[in-house]
Amino acid sequence: MDERERHIDTTRARAGQTPHMTRVILPLSLGLVVIIFLIILYVWR
What we know:
The chain has 45 residues and is an all-alpha fold.
């Protein structure tokens, strides 16, 4: 059985769609974490 590596070009390897959701989700979640920690800090005092 021949088990050579199969190489495909970049266009075929990235055949899916890239919706760029990280640009929205990452800052939003980071902001929420900061707000939650500020609330915890305020309640703790």
